[in-house]
Amino acid sequence: MDENLPLNEYVNHHKGSYDQFYKESLENPEKFWQEHSKIIDWYRNFDQVLDQSSAPFYRWFTNGKLNVSYNALDRHVKSFRRNKAAIIWVGEDGREKIVTYHGLLKRVNAFAKALIDSGIRKGDRVAIYLPMVIETPVVMLACARIGAVFTVIFSGFGASAIAERINDCGAKVVITADGGRRNGKIIPLKNIVDEALEDTKTVETVIVLKNTQNEVDMVEGRDFWYHEVASDERALVEPERMDSNDPLFILYTSGTTGKPKGVVHGNGGYSVWVSNTLKWAFDPKEDDRWWCAADIGWITGHSYIVFAPLLLGLTSIMYEGSITYPGPDRMWQIVEKYGVNILYTSPTAIRMLMRYGDSYPKKYDLSSLRILGSVGEPINPAAWHWFYSVIGSDRCPIIDTYWQTETGGFIISPSANLGIGPLKPGSATFPMPGIAPVILDENGNECKENEKGYICIQRPWPGMMLTLNGDDERYVKVYFSRFPGRYFNGDFAMKDKDGYYWLLGRSDEVIKVSGHRLGTIEIEDALVSFPEISEAAVISKPDNVKGEAIISFVIPKRGITPDRHLSERIKKEVRERLGPIIVPEEIHFVESLPKTRSGKIMRRVLKAVYLNQIPGDLTTLENEASVEDIKNAIEMLKKEKI
Ligand code: WT7
Predict the structure, then answer these.
(1) 216 alpha carbon to ligand 1 midpoint, in Å?
(2) Hey, what domains does the chain have and what are their CATH numbers?
(3) Whole-angstrom Cα distance, residue 194 to residue 198?
(4) 376 lines ligand 1 (CB under 6 A)
(5) Per-residue pLDDT tens digits for 151-187
């Protein structure tokens, strides 16, 4: 763990300047953020850097007025960046589109007008269910331009996940496509939307992008073609003057209980945060080609494919499909062809590509790469070393960025721009400026060196969410009640003797499958909604590529004799309703589940049993548990029928 890698001239030359910078950010936050908020052009200066009067509803840059699309587009169009590539889009089939800042602004204006023509105004909710096409950032920026609050629904989600999100935010319009491409297949997005809309009441308009030419049904008066409504190439839509704390978007993410949480991000704090963090962590240069290989359906895509790079006037590469389609060299081929300088991906992707061996990357010239990045889950040292040596030729620092949907942008990460010390594989290193982490034990006392505890953040930062959509109470309960006054995010971590942070996975019942965040409760809800099932419990098992894989235990209803057909049907229906990432890898039919006396399923015990780490004394595992009940359940579990 303490191994120091060969010092890399890029990362090492000025660690001291990071220390100084970080210190200033905490010692004089007013001055610090006054200065760094200038990364954004404001129509009206804010009155106060931070208003803590209704904590934990912290409000940054109060009464400041800005427009995110103006900052991402218009101001660059007025500068030397007018004809610079804003987005280089690469299709799964190799097609490409290079859109300049000027071109992107035209498209955004045309779509902003289409939204206005459909009756959408500031504060209205817009659902976006689009694949990874150029129109996705266009629609997001068009919403930002007119002040409509958008929610992007990952195009891998199914109909009931869409309906749930539309109902929670009250979307008036849905933007979708006839189809989306992934792994050489076409996903019928519009048909899925049609199904979802059977369970919603608020949607008045559906705008459909012609993307794959597959057949769709258009509902008269409700459904319109994108190319028809957004045909005015000369449209000019004045950017709305948004308040710093007006919502910009809602993004749903999984939690430990109940339905997904609608994380609300604002205009001012969020844009100041994402642009500064990208600059600090990755030190992008004016002529760089930045490739964040995430999906726009997740926060990584929002913050670091769309907003931060465009706010900074960079060239952002956007790839349509699967990084292993048509072959395992797809990523390396794109790096070579487009001369990617900074490549930001996930541990899952790295592990997957690593499995195919070195011969694929070795076929390509990867010398344009200067910096590499990772996000989504802790990166295991084997994957780190492969990325560092085989992809980066021992030249490129690995920026392991730790953050969450709720944090808006990076919170712990090496800072290539500010200077960092030697990297330690698997450690996200040090906090971003303005972030004051602390690791606490069960009782809220600070942990010692190398002691594992709950990571919390002691002060607000500009990128933090405003609230959870329509549920202020849940916001306070989930994030600020476990350790009052501190932001608690559900992760385990520890700090070593040199002050490096090590993220050690979730402390709650959230699991990460290929970096996707899933609540065990959501999967269980999906399983118990089958008429054949009375109870369900979900755990994860370690997976060499995906990080974790979903394992489920279900109790069939009386009179039901479970068989393979039933488990196959469950998997198929879950896939259709909620999307492929939520489908359990294994479904075990059992007669009983280990529970506490108060009836809570003990997933930890289930997991220990499943992984053959049978706990000796169960009383130590859960005080309130009925040991006999658990032992019985374990016996039953072992006698499982299929
Ligand atoms: C959870 C947040 C952040 C954008 C993508 C995921 C885990 C994320 C790291 C990292 C260790 C990480 C945490 C966190 N996580 N990045 N570099 N090292 N763990 O966003 O879906 O909101 O998930 O992902 O457990 O809480 P998300």
Answers:
(1) 37
(2) 7-322+401-494 (3.40.50.12780), 514-638 (3.30.300.30)
(3) 7
(4) yes
(5) 999 999 999 999 999 999 999 999 999 999 999 999 9
